[in-house]
Structure formats: structure tokens, C-alpha cells
């Protein structure tokens, strides 16, 4: 009677041996970089498991708009053409904006289908050290054509 149990254990071990190794965070994130956070700086509502794996926004490098970080004077909160939430931030009429992420900015980047998707509680400007697509900013250029904003 032990024989079937032994075969089952051997079969399960063999399956594990043939399973593909798990990709490292660096391999998975590639040029987006890996998010590293000092957990002592997290807001009380954000847990370690809430932090996103990749540092930069998925649209990073996809367009000159993101690289130039042109000022935005359109809708206060919205869904970009490529399906990512953004919001105006900073001083009134400054044109500063940011990409929105869950868990007060430390979680996954918020994707969207419409502007209504971007009013979720707990969203905040993307956070991260040495992150060019994080935080509230713009480069003080003239107001961009709204058709091109949001990558």
C-alpha cells in the first residue's frame, strides 16, 4: 500500500524539477527598475505586501511626453490615452501632474478605461527613490496639446 504513495511523491518531485525557475524582480522589471523602499517611511495604511515590484511607470520611455514631463492644465484627474490614471498636483495652475498608483503611491500603477476609474480611494502620486516617472512635477513648458497628453 505504500507503493502508490511513494510513486505520487516521486511524481510530484519530478514535476518540481521540470518547473521553470521563477524570474527575479530585476529580470521581470527590466529597464523599469526594481522598487526599493525603506519600510519605516511608509504611511500606516500601506503594508509591505502593497508595494509594487517595478519602480518606473509602464509608459516610461514610451513617449517624449513622459520624458519631457510637459506641464498640464487640463482635467484635474483623468485616464490617459494609453490607459493610465494621472492627476494635477502641486500649487494651483502650476501645471504639475503625476501618474497615480494604488496604496498612496507605493502600490501598483492604476490602469483605467475612463476618467471615472481614476477616483478610487487610496490613489496617490507615484512614489519611489530615483524614479523619473514618480512624484508631482513638470518642466514649465507651455501647455501641451491635450490630445497628446498622457501618452
UniProtKB/TrEMBL annotation:
Keywords: Signal
Leader sequence segment: 1-19
Full protein name: IDI-2
Organism encoding this protein: Tolypocladium paradoxum
Amino acid at each position: 500500500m505504500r507503493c502508490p504513495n511513494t510513486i505520487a511523491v516521486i511524481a510530484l518531485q519530478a514535476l518540481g524539477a521540470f518547473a521553470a525557475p521563477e524570474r527575479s524582480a530585476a529580470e521581470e522589471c527590466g529597464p523599469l527598475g526594481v522598487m526599493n523602499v525603506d519600510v519605516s517611511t511608509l504611511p500606516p495604511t500601506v503594508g509591505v505586501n502593497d508595494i509594487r515590484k517595478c519602480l518606473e511607470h509602464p509608459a516610461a520611455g514610451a513617449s517624449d511626453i513622459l520624458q519631457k514631463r510637459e506641464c498640464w492644465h487640463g482635467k484635474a484627474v483623468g485616464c490617459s490615452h494609453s490607459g493610465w490614471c494621472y492627476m494635477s498636483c502641486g500649487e494651483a495652475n502650476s501645471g504639475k501632474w503625476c501618474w497615480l498608483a494604488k496604496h498612496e503611491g507605493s502600490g501598483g500603477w492604476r490602469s483605467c478605461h475612463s476618467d471615472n476609474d481614476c477616483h478610487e480611494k487610496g490613489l496617490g502620486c507615484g512614489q519611489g527613490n530615483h524614479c523619473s516617472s514618480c512624484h508631482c512635477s513638470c518642466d514649465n513648458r507651455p501647455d501641451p496639446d491635450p490630445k497628446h497628453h498622457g501618452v
